[in-house]
Write a structure and sequence with these properties.
CATH superfamily of chain A: GHMP Kinase, N-terminal domain
Largest sheet of chain A: 5 strands, mixed
Number of strands of chain A: 9
Radius of gyration of chain A: 18 Å
Order of helices and strands of chain A: EEEHEHEHEEHEEH
Distance between the termini of chain A: 49 Å
CATH class of chain A: Alpha Beta
Number of domains of chain A: 1
Largest interface: A-B, 33 and 33 residues
Helix content of chain A: 25-40%
CATH architecture of chain A: 2-Layer Sandwich
Shape of chain A: globular
Oligomer: homohexamer
Strand content of chain A: 25-35%
């Protein structure tokens, strides 16, 4: 009987060790180091007392949440040149930071952030696959911490969050659907999907893609089922660290 | 009895009028104007006799397909400033052109484009929702035309395409799942998804997102079913225009 | 007796087939596809309800007309990389769009565009020589159409145009002065001149240059005479398409 | 009887005081300060022992001449911000430096600069109208000086110049054609033309334009006649300073 | 008797708590989190197997050390926008990273890094004054760790370091010379100096400046004496953490 | 007995010939060509009637002084490409212009420039070592001239200068401390320092560095003594040219 085993010995439906180290960047309003195995992302939330120019121009009320993402140059196995050295962001960074922003906004009532922008900064300290999902999952924790403190300080009157949000990757590796891919799995996966879900079990975003491969409805269904299992566990871990605040 | 009706009177599972006008840009190797209703996208495929620098640097064999996307300034209802006037592309354009490139590469054996880059240019002449899906669907037609001509001229020995590819949008509008959203529907949709699929009915990419909303598994399933119906019709239309070549 | 013949068989004083296809970009206020033989340029005019910052800063009254020009990447025989990929416009594009703007402003009373900017966008779909002259000639038609519609809608009270404007190229090719050079003629011409003239037969701009050659007063005189003949014909064609509006 | 007088009392066909101060930038191969009245332009010519990338790529033999132009920030009556502070050149500078390059190349046999690029730098120290014509006229002197020295040092075998070149402005000011406009005249001129001519009296470039005005054939003829008179005098002055070398 | 006291109660010649947390960025060859009180800087050293283009062009042998510095957006009390959002580095960052590079190169025999570039990345996680001195002092530790590991792996044959290097700030605050200024002291200091010194007690760099103030020879002498005391202590701490490797 | 001699025969404590040619850029409010031997720097001061955006945003009163520095392309022995050709300033230029700005601000009471920015432009016409010290020393003269004229015109009520300021380089060359290094000395110096001092003999800035070398307290002391001698002479020359105004 053929035995399938993942490079690090995990079961197909098993997350890596997940940890959120709070107040990693003490000058931010809220921050964590979000660890999914060896992937480590600094997630920091900071309030700014103004809204983007386009909101004013278009007369949109309420507030805004925006995210920025970068790979620190020493996060990868070979040094990654800084984007500033070329003067512009890579397409991949742009995509990821837009995804983080949408994920957070999907669980926030922006009317309850009147006149404010909540900045979400995600900088990858160590990259071992799944940096965008560790970023979104940690960003929620950092943002929720920030919101709690801003409510204590009286800067916010109500909690703008309508739910929690987390993200996880799933993929097809050696013809099996697996949960929470590390770098070794990710680079050889035929299909890679990122699933963003609220704590109530509703999808915020589903992005599944095969760069040089394709997938069937059945494979998609199995990946989504794995994702839901992982997201339920991540949601529990988020609540635990926030409860300890 | 409450009657639901779409702004342009279409049924929920009905595509807009779709047309591919061939050789719209005669200096390209292959080109079409891809029309999904009022959305019109120039799709042009051109062969370049070299590969990107990173392929040489990493010793990757075969060829490459890359895409570029822009909204022409007069494509929108209010004039859209050119990206060159700010010196950099918007995040949205970067995301879309990366998606177009991945969609095409998923149905191509890059080893059969040895030493070549196939450039896919998609410029939106008129935008009325679904520009990225009209771009992908038209890009396949333009690229397949180009490949046919390159084989006739002896520049390519074999057809590198392993299947056709098309894309369509689906979404949730006024609590109903609908197919192929136009601009009016798109701007008010709670959820918007783009589905890229091969002519053989396998998923290439699924991207579903709710900017300030979420969706259930059942809603996702209904959206994917609508998409499959639309994609089957688009695939038929692609074959028809290619057969007429 | 030696017989001179142009590559496409035209007489020395003969224009290419000229056509203006109206409403090519329906979201613009006015637009045409301007065709001079195989040269095809999308010309679109759009009104913006504000004036450039420098006008406010300097207290200049009235409105403004500004133009932008680009070669679409598939317009040339070998693919032309987009300017955005280098982050800046080429000198040639900058020169041409400044020329288009000056040409239009020369026949407009800017006081009759109070508080408005009229944007002229010229994108070359197919380049076969003379793209700047096709752009100027088509830009007038697009702008005049736009003005007519803005007057109908009551946005403009008076027609700001004081005359029509058109442009044509002339040059010295194989020691003969010729009218309306195509690409084959242009690349081998010893001298190349562009002449912009009002419908009343007054010069707006004369630009004659020999990159690695020079020319006499007599040659200049003969080129200007050819240009006047061509410009008279172009003016008639402009009036015809505008009359059909 | 109505008396016309120019702001500085010159006759209509009179140049300003013209002077070329040699070796103004001693580290250049050849240099002058080119003075047309209060307009002062540093013109420097420097040889580089390589050709532009496009010449190698296209297999073009010989050498190249390229020019760069800038207004120093203290050259104008109110300080002009440096282009580097915005990260890109203005359209006006791009146009002028392209014109200077073409003017020089028109009187040079590039085959006699094998493998070399001759850089022409023109920086305006004081601007009082006609900076581009002072630049071209001085650039020829600097470049010719440089060529003489390079021949002495054996770096060049033959003189690549086939003729001299100079430039002057003419215009229509208060309904009169005048020669060599200063700033006061230039800003109120209805028509402004720049004429570049060889020492043998052949045109290199004619650029006549009315920003918000137009001109007749007779006016053009009178302007060209004035330009020829001025250019003949400038050519004599160029020869004098070069003879003193 | 008037009592002078520093905001945090330190003596004038007292360093803040200094700590170097090793392997903070495990994918770098060597790394520490360098802590001077609340100032925390990630310092990472990574070897690249090539030298800068100018070394090849100029035929310079040996290797190179180069540094990059950034303030992470959440390091400051109010969020600091990323430099990439403006497309260019601030002058302050450029100055600091050039200083870090010079400091390291002053204690390295570049011939013993043949064909290599040692990249030093310094990213500030928390800023409370003295980020450049914490960066230099930590950078030496990270680089020395990296060198030890590269020698173990046989990539380097010899230790290129000729000495250790550290840096500290001194300044004049409320008319007293003080050591190792925190942010509160730094922003009100009349004079601020940074001193870089080898472990052997020789100066590498002395930079003393008063933005809107000046200082006497005696004040400079007292500041340098304080710096030497602090640098001797920092050198001892560097050796301790390196000995524990 | 071994005889040390400097390349140009000067004594170790001897300045080069120093001259300030006034009104070199007549359109500036004040200007000089600052000559230290063959090093020639255009220094121009111009008043702008507004303050930087950050002053308004932070509610800072008074005025500002800011400096810009560039090497003209023909100032160096081999042509130096313009910074605009790469779209950004070099680190070296940024450092130098920040130093010039700080030096001037240190001797100015910014409250006496209410609502104004004094721009200091320094462009190097010929570079032979010490361009930044010639720039600072000349910038003071230009700025002081400008201030005198602005007081005459009634634009400034009081002289904002509290002292004069000058700068000089010192270094260690062939194991000797020398004053005012030219290019030949500078490129082989083990240590290079720039000292900025007021006319009253107080330090404004001391920057001493050894790129691949280090220095002792005694060497620093000897360099500072040389600098003071030179700065005293420079101050006398500054007063002389200003007295002649």
């Amino acid at each position: 009987m053929e035995i399938f085993s993942r490079p690090d010995g995990r079961a197909c439906d098993e997350l890596r060790a997940v940890e959120f180290i709070p107040d990693f960047a003490p000058n931010a309003t809220g921050s964590v180091l979000s660890c999914f195995g060896s992937t480590r992302v600094v997630c920091a939330a900071t309030l700014e007392e103004k809204v983007p120019g386009w909101m004013k121009a278009q007369g949109v009320t309420g507030g805004w949440i925006t995210a920025e993402y970068s790979l620190l140059p020493y996060s990868t196995l070979t040094r990654k040149p800084r984007e500033i050295s070329k003067g512009k962001q890579e397409g991949r960074s742009v995509e990821i930071q837009r995804l983080i922003g949408r994920a957070l906004r999907a669980v926030v009532d922006l009317q309850k952030l009147p006149g404010y922008t909540l900045w979400i900064d995600c900088d990858v300290l160590q990259a071992d696959g799944g940096t965008r999902t560790a970023a979104i999952t940690g960003a929620y924790v950092a943002a929720r911490m920030a919101v709690g403190r801003l409510m204590e300080r009286g800067l916010l009157k109500e909690n703008p969050f309508t739910s929690s949000v987390a993200a996880v990757s799933v993929g097809i590796f050696q013809d099996r659907e697996i949960l929470d891919l590390n770098y070794l799995e990710d680079k050889d996966a035929a299909v890679d999907a990122n699933v963003v879900m609220t704590g109530c079990g509703r999808f915020v975003e589903v992005q599944g893609a095969g760069e040089e491969s394709t997938f069937s409805q059945e494979q998609l269904d199995r990946m989504l089922a794995l994702a839901k299992k992982g997201l339920s566990e991540l949601s529990t871990k988020q609540q635990a660290v926030l409860a300890a605040e």
